[in-house]
């Protein structure tokens, strides 16, 4: 099992940018063993897939609502995954969660991810 801690959330105006980080730690496995993903959940809404990346970082996917604006990346030497968010919109306001999956492939379903962070709040003002 891997422990995940998100950071980088905050308040930003529409059109601005934020970069979220997800630091991983654990006794038995290193982050390079996991495919990683970002999800978000706004009040009163279901959890939504944002982005995911394979173990090596060679392949990634983003959700339709953030395509062209958000980019996921990882640095396995730092055990960290990033979510670069540009051109933010008020509808991007949500708690953003980092998650890890014991898979070699990009995963989009939350049920595929076994480890989750506590989340970081992102608020985009009009």
Task: Give structural notes.
The chain is mostly beta strands. It has strands at residues 3-7, 10-13, 18-25, 35-41, 48-53, 60-62, 70-75, 80-85, 94-101, 115-116, 120-125. The strands form two sheets. Strands 2, 4, 5, 6, 9, 10 and 11 form a seven-stranded mixed sheet that branches. The protein starts with a strand and ends with a strand. 37% of the residues are buried.
Topology:
Elements (H helix, E strand, L loop, with lengths): L2 E5 L2 E4 L4 E8 L9 E7 L6 E6 L6 E3 L7 E6 L4 E6 L8 E8 L13 E2 L3 E6 L1
Parallel strand pairs: 2-11
Antiparallel strand pairs: 1-3, 3-8, 4-5, 4-9, 5-6, 7-8, 9-10, 9-11
Summed up, what is this model?
By secondary structure, this protein is an all-beta fold.
Features:
126 residues; mainly beta; four-stranded antiparallel beta sheet; 11 strands; 48% strand
Q: pLDDT under 50 segments (min length 5)?
A: none
Mean pLDDT score, rounded?
Answer: 94
Instruction: List the total number of helices.
Output: 0
Rg, Å, rounded: 13 Å
Portion in strands: over 45%
Number of strands: 11
Helix fraction by DSSP (H/I, runs of at least 4): under 10%
The helix-and-strand class reads: mainly beta
Task: Categorize the overall geometry.
Answer: globular
For the largest beta-sheet, the strand count, sense and barrel status come to:
7 strands, mixed
Give the distance, in angstroms, between the N- and C-terminal Cα atoms.
39 Å
The arrangement of helices and strands along the chain is: EEEEEEEEEEE
């Amino acid at each position: 099992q891997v422990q995940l801690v998100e950071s980088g959330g905050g308040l930003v105006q529409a059109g601005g940018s934020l970069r979220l980080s997800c630091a991983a730690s654990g006794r038995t496995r290193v982050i390079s063993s996991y495919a990683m993903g970002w999800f978000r959940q706004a009040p009163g809404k279901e959890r939504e897939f944002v982005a995911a990346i394979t173990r090596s970082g060679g392949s990634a996917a983003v959700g339709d609502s953030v395509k062209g604006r958000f980019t996921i990346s990882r640095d396995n030497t730092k055990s960290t995954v990033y979510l670069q968010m540009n051109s933010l919109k008020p509808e991007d306001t949500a708690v953003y969660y980092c998650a890890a999956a014991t898979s070699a492939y990009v995963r989009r379903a939350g049920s595929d991810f076994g480890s989750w962070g506590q989340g970081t709040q992102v608020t985009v003002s009009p």
